[in-house]
Design brief:
Helix content: 40-55%
Strand content: 15-25%
CATH topology: Rossmann fold
Bound molecules: NADP nicotinamide-adenine-dinucleotide phosphate
Largest sheet: 7 strands, parallel
CATH class: Alpha Beta
CATH architecture: 3-Layer(aba) Sandwich
Oligomer: single chain
Number of helices: 9
Number of domains: 1
Distance between the termini: 48 Å
Shape: globular
Protein backbone atom coordinates (compact mmCIF):
# COMPACT_ATOMS: atom_id res chain seq x y z
CA UNK A 1 0.00 0.00 0.00
CA UNK A 2 1.42 3.42 -0.90
CA UNK A 3 2.15 6.06 1.71
CA UNK A 4 -0.96 7.92 2.91
CA UNK A 5 -3.42 5.37 1.56
CA UNK A 6 -6.67 4.16 3.11
CA UNK A 7 -7.79 0.78 1.82
CA UNK A 8 -7.66 0.90 -2.00
CA UNK A 9 -8.10 4.67 -2.23
CA UNK A 10 -5.21 7.00 -1.51
CA UNK A 11 -5.93 10.03 0.67
CA UNK A 12 -5.18 12.17 -2.38
CA UNK A 13 -7.83 10.39 -4.45
CA UNK A 14 -10.43 10.91 -1.74
CA UNK A 15 -9.70 14.60 -1.25
CA UNK A 16 -9.16 15.90 -4.78
CA UNK A 17 -12.68 16.52 -5.98
CA UNK A 18 -12.13 18.27 -9.31
CA UNK A 19 -9.30 16.15 -10.68
CA UNK A 20 -8.61 16.98 -14.36
CA UNK A 21 -11.75 19.09 -14.72
CA UNK A 22 -11.29 22.28 -16.72
CA UNK A 23 -12.88 25.38 -15.18
CA UNK A 24 -13.37 28.87 -16.58
CA UNK A 25 -13.89 31.45 -13.82
CA UNK A 26 -14.78 35.06 -14.62
CA UNK A 27 -13.64 37.94 -12.42
CA UNK A 28 -11.10 35.60 -10.84
CA UNK A 29 -8.11 37.91 -10.33
CA UNK A 30 -9.41 39.07 -6.95
CA UNK A 31 -12.03 38.50 -4.27
CA UNK A 32 -14.41 35.54 -4.41
CA UNK A 33 -13.33 34.64 -7.96
CA UNK A 34 -9.66 34.43 -6.99
CA UNK A 35 -10.44 32.33 -3.91
CA UNK A 36 -12.50 30.05 -6.18
CA UNK A 37 -9.68 29.75 -8.74
CA UNK A 38 -7.22 28.78 -5.98
CA UNK A 39 -9.66 26.32 -4.40
CA UNK A 40 -10.47 24.68 -7.76
CA UNK A 41 -6.75 24.33 -8.55
CA UNK A 42 -6.14 22.75 -5.12
CA UNK A 43 -8.96 20.32 -5.89
CA UNK A 44 -7.17 19.27 -9.08
CA UNK A 45 -8.88 21.45 -11.71
CA UNK A 46 -7.14 23.24 -14.57
CA UNK A 47 -8.29 26.83 -14.37
CA UNK A 48 -8.68 29.68 -16.85
CA UNK A 49 -8.38 32.88 -14.85
CA UNK A 50 -10.48 35.54 -16.63
CA UNK A 51 -10.47 39.18 -15.61
CA UNK A 52 -9.81 42.75 -16.76
CA UNK A 53 -6.40 43.67 -15.31
CA UNK A 54 -3.38 41.81 -16.82
CA UNK A 55 -1.12 42.23 -13.75
CA UNK A 56 -3.74 40.80 -11.37
CA UNK A 57 -4.50 37.92 -13.74
CA UNK A 58 -0.79 37.10 -13.98
CA UNK A 59 -0.44 37.23 -10.18
CA UNK A 60 -3.29 34.76 -9.71
CA UNK A 61 -1.93 32.42 -12.40
CA UNK A 62 1.47 32.53 -10.68
CA UNK A 63 -0.10 31.73 -7.29
CA UNK A 64 -1.79 28.66 -8.79
CA UNK A 65 1.35 27.47 -10.57
CA UNK A 66 3.49 28.04 -7.47
CA UNK A 67 1.15 25.72 -5.59
CA UNK A 68 1.63 23.05 -8.28
CA UNK A 69 -1.62 23.70 -10.16
CA UNK A 70 -2.33 24.38 -13.84
CA UNK A 71 -3.69 27.74 -14.96
CA UNK A 72 -4.12 29.93 -18.00
CA UNK A 73 -4.70 33.68 -17.84
CA UNK A 74 -7.10 35.49 -20.18
CA UNK A 75 -8.11 39.12 -20.44
CA UNK A 76 -11.88 38.94 -20.62
CA UNK A 77 -14.48 41.66 -20.39
CA UNK A 78 -17.74 39.77 -19.95
CA UNK A 79 -19.47 42.51 -21.97
CA UNK A 80 -17.29 41.78 -24.97
CA UNK A 81 -18.16 38.61 -26.89
CA UNK A 82 -14.93 38.67 -28.92
CA UNK A 83 -12.77 38.58 -25.75
CA UNK A 84 -14.92 35.72 -24.43
CA UNK A 85 -14.64 33.73 -27.68
CA UNK A 86 -10.86 34.22 -27.72
CA UNK A 87 -10.63 32.94 -24.12
CA UNK A 88 -12.80 29.90 -24.96
CA UNK A 89 -10.54 29.06 -27.95
CA UNK A 90 -7.41 29.47 -25.78
CA UNK A 91 -8.90 27.23 -23.08
CA UNK A 92 -9.79 24.54 -25.61
CA UNK A 93 -6.40 24.62 -27.29
CA UNK A 94 -4.59 24.52 -23.92
CA UNK A 95 -6.77 22.16 -21.88
CA UNK A 96 -8.96 20.44 -24.52
CA UNK A 97 -12.38 20.89 -22.91
CA UNK A 98 -14.52 23.04 -20.59
CA UNK A 99 -16.22 21.21 -17.74
CA UNK A 100 -17.18 24.08 -15.45
CA UNK A 101 -18.06 27.74 -15.98
CA UNK A 102 -18.22 29.95 -12.90
CA UNK A 103 -19.94 33.24 -13.72
CA UNK A 104 -18.49 35.38 -10.97
CA UNK A 105 -17.57 38.80 -12.46
CA UNK A 106 -19.83 41.47 -11.04
CA UNK A 107 -19.94 45.09 -9.94
CA UNK A 108 -22.06 47.46 -7.88
CA UNK A 109 -23.08 51.02 -8.81
CA UNK A 110 -25.40 51.86 -5.96
CA UNK A 111 -27.87 54.74 -5.72
CA UNK A 112 -31.39 55.15 -4.45
CA UNK A 113 -33.97 54.86 -7.22
CA UNK A 114 -34.63 58.62 -7.23
CA UNK A 115 -30.93 59.31 -7.89
CA UNK A 116 -30.02 56.41 -10.15
CA UNK A 117 -28.78 57.35 -13.61
CA UNK A 118 -29.38 55.41 -16.79
CA UNK A 119 -25.60 54.87 -17.07
CA UNK A 120 -25.47 53.28 -13.59
CA UNK A 121 -28.42 51.06 -14.39
CA UNK A 122 -27.14 49.96 -17.80
CA UNK A 123 -23.57 49.26 -16.68
CA UNK A 124 -24.68 46.88 -13.94
CA UNK A 125 -27.13 45.16 -16.30
CA UNK A 126 -24.41 44.79 -18.96
CA UNK A 127 -21.87 43.17 -16.62
CA UNK A 128 -23.90 41.29 -14.01
CA UNK A 129 -26.71 40.06 -16.26
CA UNK A 130 -25.71 40.18 -19.93
CA UNK A 131 -22.15 39.13 -18.97
CA UNK A 132 -23.51 35.94 -17.39
CA UNK A 133 -25.60 35.27 -20.49
CA UNK A 134 -22.63 36.01 -22.82
CA UNK A 135 -20.23 33.61 -21.10
CA UNK A 136 -22.80 30.84 -20.74
CA UNK A 137 -23.82 31.22 -24.40
CA UNK A 138 -20.16 30.92 -25.40
CA UNK A 139 -19.61 27.58 -23.62
CA UNK A 140 -22.97 25.86 -23.98
CA UNK A 141 -22.28 24.30 -27.39
CA UNK A 142 -19.04 22.82 -26.07
CA UNK A 143 -20.81 21.34 -23.05
CA UNK A 144 -23.61 20.02 -25.28
CA UNK A 145 -21.03 18.33 -27.50
CA UNK A 146 -19.33 16.81 -24.43
CA UNK A 147 -22.78 15.88 -23.05
CA UNK A 148 -21.53 17.12 -19.71
CA UNK A 149 -20.85 20.37 -17.92
CA UNK A 150 -21.60 22.52 -14.91
CA UNK A 151 -22.72 26.16 -15.07
CA UNK A 152 -22.41 28.02 -11.77
CA UNK A 153 -23.42 31.64 -11.34
CA UNK A 154 -23.09 34.17 -8.57
CA UNK A 155 -26.27 35.80 -7.40
CA UNK A 156 -26.65 37.42 -3.97
CA UNK A 157 -28.90 37.31 -0.94
CA UNK A 158 -30.17 40.73 -2.05
CA UNK A 159 -31.88 38.98 -4.98
CA UNK A 160 -34.07 37.30 -2.37
CA UNK A 161 -35.02 40.29 -0.23
CA UNK A 162 -33.98 43.45 -2.12
CA UNK A 163 -31.61 46.06 -0.77
CA UNK A 164 -31.63 49.78 -0.19
CA UNK A 165 -29.82 51.58 -3.05
CA UNK A 166 -29.51 48.47 -5.24
CA UNK A 167 -32.35 48.60 -7.79
CA UNK A 168 -29.90 47.74 -10.59
CA UNK A 169 -27.83 45.17 -8.68
CA UNK A 170 -30.79 43.33 -7.11
CA UNK A 171 -32.49 43.16 -10.52
CA UNK A 172 -29.44 41.51 -12.11
CA UNK A 173 -28.98 39.05 -9.26
CA UNK A 174 -32.65 38.05 -9.44
CA UNK A 175 -32.30 37.55 -13.18
CA UNK A 176 -29.27 35.28 -12.65
CA UNK A 177 -31.50 32.98 -10.59
CA UNK A 178 -34.24 33.00 -13.25
CA UNK A 179 -31.78 32.29 -16.07
CA UNK A 180 -30.20 29.46 -14.09
CA UNK A 181 -33.56 27.79 -13.45
CA UNK A 182 -34.30 28.05 -17.17
CA UNK A 183 -30.93 26.46 -18.03
CA UNK A 184 -31.53 23.71 -15.46
CA UNK A 185 -34.71 22.82 -17.38
CA UNK A 186 -33.27 23.20 -20.89
CA UNK A 187 -29.97 21.43 -20.26
CA UNK A 188 -30.58 18.91 -17.47
CA UNK A 189 -31.36 16.06 -19.87
CA UNK A 190 -28.16 16.81 -21.81
CA UNK A 191 -25.88 16.12 -18.83
CA UNK A 192 -25.42 19.78 -17.91
CA UNK A 193 -26.23 21.08 -14.42
CA UNK A 194 -26.87 24.77 -13.66
CA UNK A 195 -26.85 26.16 -10.12
CA UNK A 196 -26.57 29.46 -8.29
CA UNK A 197 -24.75 30.53 -5.16
CA UNK A 198 -26.16 33.50 -3.24
CA UNK A 199 -23.36 34.93 -1.10
CA UNK A 200 -24.31 37.01 1.90
CA UNK A 201 -21.94 39.82 2.86
CA UNK A 202 -18.40 38.71 2.06
CA UNK A 203 -15.24 40.66 2.94
CA UNK A 204 -13.93 41.78 -0.47
CA UNK A 205 -13.25 45.14 -2.14
CA UNK A 206 -16.83 45.18 -3.47
CA UNK A 207 -17.91 46.21 0.06
CA UNK A 208 -15.54 49.22 0.04
CA UNK A 209 -18.35 51.63 -0.82
CA UNK A 210 -20.38 50.58 2.25
CA UNK A 211 -19.81 52.90 5.24
CA UNK A 212 -18.19 51.29 8.33
CA UNK A 213 -21.30 51.82 10.51
CA UNK A 214 -23.53 50.08 7.92
CA UNK A 215 -21.09 47.15 7.72
CA UNK A 216 -21.23 46.89 11.49
CA UNK A 217 -25.04 46.85 11.37
CA UNK A 218 -24.89 44.09 8.75
CA UNK A 219 -22.63 42.00 10.99
CA UNK A 220 -25.13 42.45 13.82
CA UNK A 221 -27.94 41.21 11.53
CA UNK A 222 -26.08 38.03 10.53
CA UNK A 223 -26.90 35.24 13.00
CA UNK A 224 -23.25 34.17 12.84
CA UNK A 225 -22.22 37.70 13.82
CA UNK A 226 -19.60 38.26 11.12
CA UNK A 227 -18.97 38.84 7.42
CA UNK A 228 -18.13 35.83 5.26
CA UNK A 229 -14.74 35.03 3.77
CA UNK A 230 -14.21 34.60 0.00
CA UNK A 231 -12.95 31.06 0.71
CA UNK A 232 -16.34 30.16 2.18
CA UNK A 233 -18.01 30.92 -1.16
CA UNK A 234 -15.23 29.10 -3.03
CA UNK A 235 -15.97 25.97 -0.99
CA UNK A 236 -19.62 26.08 -2.06
CA UNK A 237 -18.66 26.47 -5.73
CA UNK A 238 -16.19 23.57 -5.46
CA UNK A 239 -18.89 21.31 -4.02
CA UNK A 240 -21.42 22.28 -6.71
CA UNK A 241 -18.82 21.79 -9.46
CA UNK A 242 -17.89 18.33 -8.20
CA UNK A 243 -19.49 14.97 -8.89
CA UNK A 244 -20.64 15.00 -5.25
CA UNK A 245 -23.36 17.39 -6.49
CA UNK A 246 -24.31 15.12 -9.41
CA UNK A 247 -28.09 15.38 -8.71
CA UNK A 248 -28.15 19.06 -7.79
CA UNK A 249 -29.64 21.11 -10.62
CA UNK A 250 -31.48 24.43 -10.57
CA UNK A 251 -30.57 24.95 -6.92
CA UNK A 252 -30.13 28.30 -5.20
CA UNK A 253 -27.61 27.87 -2.40
CA UNK A 254 -27.42 30.66 0.17
CA UNK A 255 -24.03 31.07 1.81
CA UNK A 256 -24.62 33.98 4.12
CA UNK A 257 -24.23 32.91 7.72
CA UNK A 258 -28.02 32.82 8.04
CA UNK A 259 -28.62 36.48 7.07
CA UNK A 260 -31.96 35.68 5.41
CA UNK A 261 -33.28 33.62 8.33
P1 LIG B 1 -14.52 41.98 -6.38
O1 LIG B 1 -13.50 41.69 -5.33
O2 LIG B 1 -14.77 43.37 -6.81
O3 LIG B 1 -14.20 41.05 -7.65
C1 LIG B 1 -14.92 41.16 -8.84
C2 LIG B 1 -13.98 40.89 -9.99
O4 LIG B 1 -14.74 40.98 -11.21
C3 LIG B 1 -12.86 41.94 -10.07
O5 LIG B 1 -11.63 41.32 -10.31
C4 LIG B 1 -13.31 42.79 -11.24
O6 LIG B 1 -12.25 43.41 -11.94
C5 LIG B 1 -14.00 41.76 -12.13
N1 LIG B 1 -14.83 42.40 -13.13
C6 LIG B 1 -15.58 43.52 -13.01
N2 LIG B 1 -16.15 43.83 -14.18
C7 LIG B 1 -15.77 42.88 -15.06
C8 LIG B 1 -16.01 42.67 -16.45
N3 LIG B 1 -16.76 43.51 -17.17
N4 LIG B 1 -15.46 41.58 -17.04
C9 LIG B 1 -14.66 40.75 -16.34
N5 LIG B 1 -14.38 40.90 -15.04
C10 LIG B 1 -14.92 41.97 -14.40
O7 LIG B 1 -15.96 41.44 -5.91
P2 LIG B 1 -16.41 40.09 -5.17
O8 LIG B 1 -16.98 40.48 -3.88
O9 LIG B 1 -15.35 39.07 -5.22
O10 LIG B 1 -17.62 39.69 -6.10
C11 LIG B 1 -17.64 38.54 -6.93
C12 LIG B 1 -19.10 38.23 -7.26
O11 LIG B 1 -19.80 37.93 -6.05
C13 LIG B 1 -19.85 39.37 -7.92
O12 LIG B 1 -20.72 38.85 -8.91
C14 LIG B 1 -20.65 39.96 -6.78
O13 LIG B 1 -21.80 40.61 -7.21
C15 LIG B 1 -20.97 38.70 -6.01
N6 LIG B 1 -21.35 38.94 -4.61
C16 LIG B 1 -20.45 39.49 -3.73
C17 LIG B 1 -20.84 39.71 -2.42
C18 LIG B 1 -19.92 40.31 -1.40
O14 LIG B 1 -20.38 40.67 -0.31
N7 LIG B 1 -18.62 40.42 -1.65
C19 LIG B 1 -22.14 39.37 -2.01
C20 LIG B 1 -23.01 38.82 -2.93
C21 LIG B 1 -22.61 38.59 -4.22
P3 LIG B 1 -11.76 44.90 -11.52
O15 LIG B 1 -11.64 44.90 -10.03
O16 LIG B 1 -10.48 45.07 -12.25
O17 LIG B 1 -12.84 45.81 -12.00
Amino acid sequence: MSQGSVGVLSIQEIRVRLRDKVAVITGSARGIGQATALKFAREGAKVTVCDLTPELIEETVKMIRAAGGEALGAIVDVRDMSSIRKMVDQTLSTFGRIDVLVNNAGIVKDAQLKNMTEEQFDLVIDINLKGVYNCTRAVVDIMLQQQSGVILSTSSVVALYGNFGQTNYAATKGAVISMTKTWAKELGRKGIRANVVCPGFIATTILNSIPERVLHAIEEKVPMGRLGKPEEIADAFAFLASDEASYINGAVLEVGGGVTV
